[in-house]
């Protein structure tokens, strides 16, 4: 069964190579596991969307939880989906670089992007807009 899980966590002791390392592992492992999605980093907060088989995504999420590069994880949305939104992305990366700042703030209730405060519906709209309208990092 196909599901989408969205969670947030706070970056912790991130070194300059950590995001690159996370992305490389993600792309390799997620391709092999049939997982797609996107990882956003803004305001010191990770926001990740994972799509794939329910049990596969559960197992991956529990592995990610053990990673010392983040803390305070919270599942913000979990739903079954008819199809993937990030079908071609084993893990896209987005940060609030200048070009994307307005997009991040469009969905923020306060002056800072804070996914912990966002409703599931708002998170879904944010990711849907990200797909078509963002500057992706590689
Ligand atoms: C915020 C965050 C998101 C991550 N997302 C993924 C992911 O989608 N897929 C993945 O395999 N690893 C992800 N990781 C990395 C894992 O925690 C772990 O380091 C990695 O899966 C180890 O795989 P490797 O031994 O093949 O490098 C993430 C880590 C963090 C901190």
Protein described:
By secondary structure, the protein is an alpha+beta fold. The chain has a single domain (2-132), classed as Alpha-Beta Plaits, CATH 3.30.70.100. Helix content is 34%, strand content 30%. It is built from four helices and five strands; from the N terminus they run βαββαββαα. The protein has a five-stranded mixed β-sheet, sandwiched between helices. The protein is globular and about 35 Å long. It starts with a strand and ends in a 6-residue tail after the last helix. Bound molecules: flavin mononucleotide. Flavin mononucleotide (FMN) binds at residues 9, 22, 25-26, 29-30, 39, 46, 48, 60, 63-64, 67, 69-70, 91. Residues 9, 22, 25-26, 29-30, 39, 46, 48, 60, 63-64, 67, 69-70, 91 line the site of flavin mononucleotide.
Which secondary-structure class do the elements indicate? alpha+beta
Radius of gyration (CA) equals 14 Å
Major sheet: arrangement of strands: 4-1-3-2-5
Shape: globular
Topology order in helix (H) and strand (E) letters:
EHEEHEEHH
Distance between the termini: 29 Å
Largest sheet: 5 strands, mixed
Q: Total domains, how many?
A: 1
Unreliable residue runs: none
CATH topology: Alpha-Beta Plaits
User: How helix-rich are the residues, as a percent range?
Assistant: 25-40%
- How much of the sequence lies in strands comes to 25-35%
Tell me the CATH architecture: 2-Layer Sandwich
Q: How many strand segments?
A: 5
Helices, by number, come to: 4
Please give the CATH class: Alpha Beta
